[in-house]
Amino acid sequence: MIAAIGLLVGVVAGLVLQPTVPLWLQPYLPIAVVAALDAVFGGVRAMLDGIFDDRVFIVSFLSNVVVAALIVFLGDHLGVGAQLSTGVVVVLGIRIFSNAAAIRRHIFKA
Amino acid sequence: MAEQKPGEQPEDEQSADTAPMPISRPANPGRTRVIRPAGGRRPLPSGAVPPVLGESSGEQEQQQRTGGAGTSAGSPGVGGRDTEPGSASDDDTLPIPPQEPARPEAEATRATGAAATGPESAATATTGTGETTASTPSVAPEDPAPAAGDGAQPARVPRPRFRVTRFQILAAVLLGALGFGLVVQARQTTSNDLSSLSQSELVRVLDDVSRQSERLDAEARTLEETQNELQSGTDRAAAAEKATRERLDVLGILAGTEPAQGPGVVIRIEDPQALLDASTVLDAVQELRDAGAEAIQFGQVRVVASTSFTDPPTGGAVVADGLEQSPPYRLLAIGDPATMESALNIPGGVLETLHQVGASGTVQRRQDLEVPVVREAVGPTYAVPRTDEPQD
């Protein structure tokens, strides 16, 4: 509940403030957002499974974001930033899909 | 964090998290949650026999409890934390006082085992049957629990519902950050300015732009050339027209198709007896031409290259171009007056010849003489301009 409110507040703040992404953050923000989405989907799934844990969620959220950004950072410095970004997005996408499938099974029993 | 590997069971999360997790299960009981899946599973093998069900669940609970007790004994802090997930999953039920005081009780209850197990198993059994029969498991566990035993309940019920913990706030903040980042990134991408493009994309864009620029440059050059051509063409045409006009004037004067005016001389030839013959008149005309006369008129005839002077067979006045003239003859010549006058007056010249013949001539200079008579231009019948020469 509180988390949903937090999400809503964040979205509204983004819409209202309309900030510009600083240049140094631009390569990492999209990947970080996708990684965070992965963590959120995982959290929702865990919640539906009844094993949700705030601590796990927070740690996984942060570590997902940090690791994703780190991979992109490394890739940029190794000259394969674009490819690594694509790889990270693919992996995270697969995870999001599998989590979404689990959530779907919980909600729709199908 | 490997807690959410795709394809694995949700329990991965817990197992990956090691120690705290097992505890969180008994504590979790947010039991509505934990038990519900259990209830869903258990009734299948032994749904009809409550005692067995109770026993089995009791065993499980026992195991969990012992594990939980052990761990919580080792680190009560962990146990405290682990109860929180339960609170999160129970969010939608009732708010309950903080769990801190409750926990020792709960652990005590777990430790006691038999006493706790009784109500616990009863509760579980009820839940299991409730699950199979009724579709409101979240309420079911609540009711039997207090009824089962007061000793266990305080530990169970105190499950905080709306307890706001640091982790929950942190999760909310993180989600807020996610929403914020999501919106910002989406807007950034939508705005689609060059700053959000990667290097290779920028290179491609640059290539496109420079290629287009080259193409446009080439087109501009072509158009400029065309413009120059047209302009110079227009200029040339104008110049040609001007030259042609001038030439037309010159030729018109020389060919006698245009009236002329300018300085010149008027020669009056008195020949009362008509002694003068055509050759003398022709000599006078030639003399004037030599002296630079540009337009000549004899009587009412414009003298040009093809003008003829003839003597009529019967004698008499000179015939010019078929027109019989009558003395006194008037000869008009436009040119340099001084030159023509002196040319006519030279010894042995025209005027002297006229005297010898028996006629007489007088020369008058005029500063503004008009030669009004024109002559029809007759086009050539056979001759055409050479085409390989420039027309002008």
TrEMBL record, chain A:
GO terms for cellular component: plasma membrane. The chain crosses the membrane at residues 24-44, 56-74, 80-103. This is Small basic family protein. Belongs to the sbp family. It is found in: Cell membrane. InterPro entries: DUF1290. It comes from Kineosporia babensis. The keyword Transmembrane helix applies. Keywords: Cell membrane, Membrane, Transmembrane, Transmembrane helix. It is a multi-pass membrane protein. Pfam families: DUF1290.
TrEMBL record, chain B:
It comes from the Bacteria. It comes from Kineosporia babensis. Residues 1-156 are annotated as: Disordered. Residues 54-66, 109-156 have a biased composition (Low complexity). Residues 67-80 have a biased composition (Gly residues). GO terms for cellular component: plasma membrane. Belongs to the UPF0749 family. Keywords: Coiled coil. Gene3D superfamilies: Protein of unknown function DUF881. Residues 206-243 form a coiled coil. Signal peptide: none annotated. This is DUF881 domain-containing protein. It holds the Pfam family DUF881.
